[in-house]
Structure formats: structure tokens, C-alpha cells
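Cross-posting from the modeling subforum.

Setting up a comparison between two proteins and wanted a second pair of eyes on the formatting. Protein 1 (sequence, then C-alpha cells):
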Amino acid sequence: MAGIAGWITRGARRDEGALSAMLQAICHRGVDGLSGVVDRRSGRELVFAAQIADEASGVAVVLDGALANAAELKNALTVRGQRFASSADAEIVLRAYLQWDKECVRQLRGQFALAVWDGRRERLLLARDRFGEKPLYLYEKDGVVAFASEPKALRQAFPLEVDSNAVKNHLEGKTSGALYRNVRRLGPATQALWHFGRLIETRYWTSPDKEPYAGVPVSGAIEAFAGELEDAVRRRPADAVFLSGGLDSAALVAVASRNNTRLRTFTFGLAKDRNSELAAAAEVAKQFGTSHHEVVATPQELARALPEVVVMRDAPASRPSDVAVHLLCRSAEGVKRVLTGEGCDEVLGGYRRYIAARFKGNFRSDLYAAQTGPLPDEVLERTERVGAGAALEAQHPFLDHVLAETVSALPDDMRVRGVATKWILREAARGLLPKMGGRRHGGFRVRARDVMSNELLLEYLGAPDAHVRQYCDPATMLEEHVKGKKNHEAALWTLLNLEIWHRRSASG
């Protein structure tokens, strides 16, 4: 994990000291060992923090993330004549760029965001991994293109303003990449090339679920899938697994424990919750002999943690379970990398709505929409950001693109069969997890009412100068909800998080 920060412009020069301020804002991502690269010529300025630079070629690289095919790439590049001074993933990216130019991104497997400066060509390459596991934000205005892992870094060098239209879209439940003017996320599976003042973006990979099933018969599908899942986990060595009580994370524990006898597992439960999955998670942990840890929180603890989550995300929390993930990350002391089951439902057809979609004939288009919308914009962004805030890197084996391509090549009933979702995972895990059965689960269960104490609502939304009043007046809703006259949980959750963001991040 490493923080990415920098800018390029053909306009007036900027204070180089702003780079240090940008890095300080995201120091939790890891900025040690980064060195500033400054390249000025003919009215153009490039300033960014690099992990590695090659003086002979004039190429510098910074990589946030981990390559799942690092060893293979290094071997392939060595055969082609590239010479390495280390085994660092950043150097592998540098050598891959020297070998394949901008097409090097297609060779990378795993989760990553990167910046490559080619001084001789005066060219900047920015890119994100296929599903958007790692973030990269862009700021564009008046000839300046700035880039950073998080908006809070951009705020240190550029006067960001809240985008009222983006906020209104957010209030209406529409996806918004950022709530600042002139700031946006670089899309998943996208590379942006800056060359002589122009920024050109290209999507280098598209989920195969965008296209209908090609009708190719596949034999040994379950065995092939099981092999790909084991390979995806093996390529992502981790210290721990976030274990709920369900099939997705339990399967990861079953596979990861084969190669890690000291595997740790962490699970979350709400105090006095009769539907808690703590017992189910403990059963899985016992079966595979992991060092198991339970994080049990009260509603009061959740309420106190919510502002921390908003600050870490630099955005309103999208789901109450964000707080649970934050508490899990904070409790995982000594853990550097953790496996999660994120992406399993989107790739393997795990949502109940996919059963109806199968009968209606729009299964693949619904899965594709989930993979390119809520998954990168809410789920992955949440896990990555709060994990980074605890110096922890979350990895998602179910989002290995080779695994996703293998699954998409199968008939639709290999994912949803009758009323059974994730059918192929259930079949593959039958021998590993005989006690799981067909039980469903809801992940780390947290409801908005578990987080939103009346005190918290009144503190942030009851103030006469509350920022959200520029969009709507919550007074009536707030009074009805606090007095128990009417439940406005959903609306107040959105407004509360927006108000916290305004106070703690946007105005900070």
C-alpha cells in the first residue's frame, strides 16, 4: 500500500511544498520511501511522489496495491531482457512499462492504482485495476490535472468546493464519484494518458457479463472453479480473514487455512443481538483451527465511531455496516493484509433479486450493473478506505479477473439454479464446509437505527446552522423521529452522514 499524489500542468508553476502536504494527508496509506519527482520544461510542470525511478529511461513509478502475478511477470520480463534490482511490485510495473508501453496495464493481475511518468516522452500514465479495488481521484481545472489516492490529499494543494449538484444526486440515491467540483474518480479498468496537455481515457477491460452467454458447453465446471478460487487465494497471501457467518468468507477461510497454519479470523456482532452470527463464525473458525477474534459493539460505540468512518472515507458513509468494518479494521492489530468476501455476490450471483432476473432473462445485465456501480462506488470504496485508515490492506479473491472470466464462461444456471444463489460456490464448498448447508446470511449486520442515536441526530441535524439545511430542512422529520411519531430512518441516515461529512471533511 502506498499513497499516490501529484499533478501535471502546462500553466503556472505551483509550490512544490504542496506535495509534502498532500502526502501528509494520506500518510496512513504509507508514504515512507516515496521521493518527489519534479520535471519542468517548455511551460510544463510535473510533480509527484515516486517509489522507484529509472535514470536511464527517465521513467518513474508509484504503485498502490499488490500484484497477484508478480512472480510470473518478473520471470516473463527477465526472459525478455529486463534486469531487476529488487522484487518490489513497483519495479515490476516499471519494467513492464518499458517492455509493453501503456499496454502493460493489461498484463497486471490483482488490485492496483498506479502512476507512471515517462520523462523522455513527456507522458503520464494513470490506471486502476479492473473492478476498482484501489482508488484514484482526479482534479481537473484550468489546465491542471492533479491525482491522488484520496480527495483529502487534493484539498491540501487545491481549493476544492462542494458540488451542490453532486450532493443533490447523492440525496436522491444516485451514484456520485465525489462531492467536490472538478473532482472525480478514475473509472475501474481505466487508464488515462496525459500527453502534451491532453488527457485521454481508455477502458482496457470490460466484465464479460456485459455480453450474453456464448453457449459454449463446459465440462468439469465445478472443479475448474474450485481450482481458480484456490489460485486466487494463493496469489493473495494474507494474515487474516474477515469472517461473517456465511458461505463467502467461510470458503475463504477453508482455502486460506491450507497454506497458513497461523491464520487469524475476525468477526463482528452487535451486543444483545439475537440474530448475531458470532456463533456461526466461531464454528467455522474452530473447524479450521484459526486464531479467532470477536468484536462486539454496543449502539453507543457504533454512534461514536460513525464520524471517524466519515473522516476516513472523506465521504458520507453509504451503509451502516461501514461502521462494523471500521471497528473490525481497528481491532486487527498486527494484521497487514486481510481477505474479505467482497464481490462474491456480484460475480457469483448471490443477491436474491438475481432469481427473478434469471426468469426474466436479464440476469447478466443485472450482474454487470452491480459490478460496475455499487460494487466499486460503495462496497469496495468503503472497505479499502477504512482499511487504509488502519494501515490494513483488504484483498478480495472473488474479484480476481481470471476467476470472474471463468465463471462468466459458464451457463447462467451455474450461478443461479432455481432458487439457489451462488450455486457453483455451494457445490465447490460442499466437501469443505459440510455444515454450511443452504443457510443465508446478511454479512456484518448493522442497521441504521443501531448507529443513529437521538443524541447524534440532534447534535448534527438539530443545529440551526446545519449544512444540510441548504438542501432541505430536516426539522420536521427529526422531531417526528426522535419523539417516535414516525420512522424517518432512511432519510435521516443520509442527511446525518452528509452533515458529518460537511463538518469534518468538506470544511476541514
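Protein 2 (same layout):
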Amino acid sequence: MRYISTRDASISCTFEEAVCSGYAPDGGLFVPESLPLIDATTLQEFSSLSFPELAAKIMRMFISHEEVPEENLKEICKKSFVDTFDLQAGESIIPIVKIGDAHMVELFHGPTFCFKDFGMQAVIHFLSFFSNRRNKKIKMIVSTTGDTGPACVAAVSAAANPNLTLLVHFPKGQISAFQRKQMTTLNSPYVQVASFEGGGDDMDLPIKNILKEKHHDFDFCGVNSYNIGRPLIQMIHFVWTYLRVAEENEINLGDKSRPVDVIIPTGAMGNIAAAYMIKKCGLPIGKLCAGVNINDITDRVIQSGKFHKSKRMEKTLSEAINIQVPYNFERLLYFLSDQNHSIVNTWMKKMEDTSKLDLDDIWIKRLQNDFSSAKVTDEEMCESIVKAREVYNYFIDPHTAVALSAAEKLGYHLKGGSNSKNPFAILCTASPCKFEESVTIALGKEGWNRYKESEFPKRATDIIAKTEINPIEYLLPDGMTIEEVQPLWENQARDLMVTK
């Protein structure tokens, strides 16, 4: 399997080269050169596998034996999905809980209580494998709006490979206190943590510029979800979800007349890009529904074709999906256009030059064939947290609540709704334990205390009790714009990485 740029088919590389870089050299995103077929027979073979076994089978479709021998692939899957998940005997790595007619897919039982653990653990273990085989250091850089950072910090720290180091950035005051503590209390010789005075997207350009550089002694690598490893690995939990929901609803595996719809809290679109790729492989997923907050570029492009960057990032109670420009939309456009590199290149250059892209009606119609979306306010999100708790005795985090509210707006009623809708799954992307402020605003102090008394994870309590180490600070001097300060932040980040 080769990997090519969304913008230029002549840029072709191995899985190792793609995952060890991040962006393609032309600024595009890597995608598989072709997509394997997943049919009813394949799904039947998958149905009895454990999650690590399923992971190895699916990843093998995208990675050759020459690049990662079978024994190494199985070991990476074991390290990623067994050793780091704190499960009791008989517990599932991804429990699926019914509340009303909704299948709630709990993706938050990993080491940092969020779905990012699935993609990040495996990516870091692949990078560790490749760096050892190359005998060359890999210096990783990441920017986070909440969950990616903690997942990466935990994975790099656990790998404890001197060849792997990480510089992680978060926007000051725009992530939860718990998420910040997950990064600033883990004292690892392999990790540096920095904050910056801007919005969640404001480190993207400095990082992209740094990743273009080549060095003799080490490689720079970006591990946000533009890295193809992340959505590739996240495809696995969509297959797992389909298999379990199909079984629950007595659906014959592979029956395209009875697809499963999925509602996803959506920020940078890595998760929904993974779902779209695996749907293109043949997995019977119906609608891919994006739940977004008032930073709503994804909703605007699905509804009207207007992919326009907002002037600023709005602060919300669902901070981990705050986004101005979701980079994985480029992968959606690539598969939406039947893998037309030329048109994707034209579209993305226009977006980079003007911060605006207007899709014609033909593309809007194609987009709406596979995707739907709904925008959710903080007030509506809080109402969903309350409803889940009061009606179903089920605690959810603010991002899952965005998806739940979006589902109901799109006609997926939890109880007593129209029978015309397909069976549907809602991705629960994080544990409520990470979002005390938002959950307390929704349920009140008494509601939060009830959650802490009944369901709060002990590992989360231990994190709260730890002492923080002050992060490195990237400042925004008075009178300077973000555009003016970004080159300074780029130099600061580069210096930190080169000297580490």
C-alpha cells in the first residue's frame, strides 16, 4: 500500500514515510492510494474478533508485511489496546450502552479518558517502532484544543523511547483545568508543554512551516489528525461499532439496505474522515452526522457549501471541538470528488489564499448525500446533559451532549420517534470527569457531586491531586496581531525542539 497527497498523485510514499511526517510535502494530506474492500464475508470474519485482533486485521489492509511484520503489528496492537486500557475482567474496551433508541459508544475508557487514546496510542507505538528501526530520533509537535494533547503526552511518556520527544501546545485559558493538568502534572523527560495566547487554530501555521524542514540528525513529525495514522486507526472503532449495533438490531452483516447512522461530535474532522474512508471501503454506514458548537464551519459547509474561516474562535463549554478550519475536510473533499487531485489542489489553494471556499451545487449535493449536521448552542448542550441524567440516569460530557442534541435536531429521537430513521450510534468521545466546569453549569454543584460520588474514576482523582509544572509560555505582546506573532512562536517552537 502506497500513500499519496490529496493534491498531487505523483507524491507517493510508504506508510512509514507518511506517518513519520504528518503533512505531505506539498501541504496536502496523505491518503491511501487505494481503499480495500470490506464486504459481508469480511465483516463475518471480523465479528468474533477481540478489539486488538480486529485492529491488527484492519491495519494489515493498509500496511505491508515488509514495512511491519505480523509479529510486530500484533505487538503494537497489544501495547495500544490492551496494556494501556485499565479494564476489569470481562469489560469491553468500547462499551455500547443503550439510552432509549440511541447506542452510546463509550470511547473514553483509555488512559486519558477520551477517544483520542485509540488513534494516538497506536500512532506513537508505530513511530517508536520506526524510529528504533531507523536508529533516528523523531521530534513530534502537536497543538491541542483539549484532548489530543493529553493523549499524546500519555502515549509518549508510556513509550519511554529516547528516540521520541514531544512538544505539545495548548491555547491558554481555552481547555479545561483537568485537561491542562493531564499535561502539566506528568513530568516526563520526553515531553515539553507550552501554552500560547490565541485561539485553538493559531499554532497550526507555525507547526505546518516547521514540518516542512528536513534535518540530518532527526525527523520532525506532526501527530494531530492531519497525520494519516490517526484516521486510519480510528476506522477500527467504526467497524467495531457497526458490528455491535448490527448484532443488537439483528441486521445481517453487510446488508446495505439496513445501514447504521453515526452521530459524531466534530472539531478537526479526523473522526468523521475516518468514518468516511471506512464507508468508502464498503462498511454499511448510512448518514455521517456532525454535531458542532457555535464554531460552526462544518455545519455551514454541509448546509450551504460555504467553507469560510470565521474571524475569531468563540469560547464555548465544549472546547475540545472549537475549530476555525478543520484540516481533515481536505480528505473529505478528496474522496467526495472521486479522488480528483487537481480540483482538491485548486480548492485548498483558494482556501489558503482567501480563507474562503464556496462549493458549487453539485458538490453540496454530493456532500449532503453522505453527511448531515446540526449546530448546538451551549444552552442546548446543557439541556442534553440534563436530559441524559434525569431521564436515563446517564452522565455525559459536553461534547457527547453536542452530538446528542444534534441527533435530536436531525430527527433521531431517543424514544417514540419516527421509524423511518436507521439504527443510530452516538460517539461518546470523552468522560465527564474531564469537564467539571461544563457539567456543573448544566447539572449544578449537586449534580456534579453526585457524579463524583458514583462514577468518577480513581485515576482522575489522582491527577487532580498532583502538582502542576508551569508550561512554557508563548506571549502575544500588546499591539501585535496573531499573524505578526506567529513567526515568533514558530522560532520559539523550533528552538525548543532542536535543543531537546
